[in-house]
Design a protein that fits this description.
Layout (H helix, E strand, L loop, with lengths): L1 H27 L9 H13 L5 E8 L2 E12 L4 E2 L6 E2 L5 H13 L20 E6 L5 E5 L6 H6 L12 H9 L8 H9 L16 H13 L3 H13 L20 E4 L2 E4 L2 H8 L13 E2 L1 H12 L3 E2 L2 E2 L3 H7 L20 E3 L4 E3 L16 E4 L5 E5 L4 E7 L1 E2 L3 H12 L10
Parallel strand pairs: 7-17
Antiparallel strand pairs: 1-2, 1-16, 2-3, 4-9, 5-6, 7-8, 10-11, 12-13, 13-14, 14-15, 15-16
């Protein structure tokens, strides 16, 4: 009898162990792998050219440590009849910003500053800023003092209150008059000019895309004691072997340079070569942190892969894993309700120089992507993103101004599929 009870107890125990094991197996099962459909992406790139939204397109995707897609369509230079190629050099405009953010966060890792330090501790010109207050009943413009100082965190997440070009207020007009991004002045002068422009709002109260990343560059220069371009070259481009990325391109690369195309009245017009030479092939006093780099697919993909690998690529450690995680985490307080056009990019917040996806696509029109991805783009409609959930990085090049978000929607739809909402659990 005792033997039968022992056998029964062992059977019940084994059943219990099996039942207990099942939830563990379900929790640890890997997420389905996203399958890249080359034909679908090829067709999307060609359609962008065929319908006149782009003169030429190209894309490079890595997943699980290997290249899974490369493709091009159309022309890098229609007048010269040069097709888009893998080594084509494109102007990436605001995709410069994440590079600047990485440079500044390298100095943070070394203890040069704290994120919530006052910016004026290092750049004293920002000590006594004024905030635009509107107009009184008599129509006179008035200004307010700061409720609190601008912090380094503010310039990393676009909550400092700076303007970024023309607009409807006296503060915008003061920005235009100051011309802080004139190519003829160095970063230190740019920063001083900006400090004389009233803020649009109290620091920390709103999100507004701004000149803040150029202030980051000025801070890198001040803290490191090196010219900004030299710092980035030594600490980012050389370790990552980004050999074709620069603010000032050597003349020998001009034949590889993609022409810029400006859309007017629904038609693309190619800029003349002299314009490209002036912007990217001549020396300027200003090395902006927010724009100005030109790069290749492979170079920028190396930067993206470094971020996916938590700060390291091919033995080169650029950032600590915890620092990459910090930059790729939403830094906007829920109380910050005013976010300009950021919600147009989907269910996102903003980290340090990256938009961060916080939820799956909420509508069919929203760009496809996975929760946890971080990304940014450029004025000429270029785009890159890092997707940790799918172990994927993507870089998309085109040279179309003004910025055309439909290109991103179609490219992402081709990468993920039109109905993709992310791995289970997002």
């Amino acid at each position: 009898m005792r033997g039968k009870r022992l056998v029964l107890a062992m059977m019940l125990a084994s059943i219990g162990l099996a039942a207990a094991a099942q939830p563990v197996q379900a929790q640890t099962a890997p997420a389905p792998t996203l399958k890249i459909d080359k034909a679908r992406i090829d067709a999307a790139l060609k359609a962008m050219v065929a319908d006149g939204r782009a003169a030429g397109t190209s894309a490079l995707i890595w997943q699980d440590g290997r290249e899974v897609y490369f493709g091009t369509a159309g022309m890098a230079d229609r007048e010269a009849k040069r097709p888009m190629r893998r080594d084509t050099i494109a102007q990436i405009y605001s995709m410069t910003k994440p590079v600047t953010g990485v440079a500044l966060m390298q100095l943070w890792e070394k203890g040069y500053f704290r994120l919530d330090d006052q910016l004026s501790k290092y750049l004293p010109e920002y000590k006594d800023m004024q905030v635009y207050g509107g107009t009184d009943r008599a129509g006179a413009v008035f200004y307010r003092p700061l409720d609190r100082p601008i912090t380094v965190r503010d310039i990393l997440r676009h909550t400092a209150g700076f303007a970024y070009g023309p607009g409807p207020t006296e503060a915008h007009r003061a920005y235009v008059a100051a011309d802080p991004l004139a190519l003829t002045i160095p970063l230190a002068e740019a920063s001083k000019r900006l400090a004389g422009v009233p803020l649009l709002f109290q620091p920390g109260t709103q999100w507004e895309y701004s000149i803040a990343v150029d202030v980051q560059a000025a801070l890198v220069e001040k803290l490191s004691g090196q010219p900004f371009a030299a710092y980035v070259q030594t600490h980012i481009f050389e370790p990552l072997k980004m050999t074709d990325t620069a603010w000032r391109q050597p003349d020998a690369r001009l034949p590889r340079f993609a022409a810029m195309n400006v859309k007017t009245d629904g038609k693309l017009t190619q800029q003349d070569a002299a314009t490209a030479r002036k912007v990217n092939f001549e020396d300027h006093a200003l090395t902006p942190g927010g724009f100005g780099l030109a790069s290749t697919l492979d170079d920028y993909q190396r930067f993206a892969r470094m971020l996916l690998n938590k700060g390291e690529l091919d033995g080169a450690r650029i950032l600590k894993p915890s620092t990459v995680n910090l930059m790729a985490t939403d830094q906007l307080d829920p109380a910050i309700k005013e976010r300009a056009w950021l919600p147009d990019k989907g269910a996102v917040g903003f980290g340090f120089d990256f938009a961060v996806r916080k939820a799956p696509p909420q509508t069919h029109q929203e760009n496809r992507g996975a929760t946890g991805e971080f990304f940014w783009d450029g004025m000429a409609s270029t785009l890159f993103w890092v997707d940790p959930a799918n172990r994927l990085t993507a870089v998309f090049f085109v040279q179309t101004i003004p910025y055309d978000g439909t290109l991103h929607r179609d490219f992402r739809g081709a990468v993920y599929g039109a109905d993709y909402k992310g791995p289970a659990g997002d």
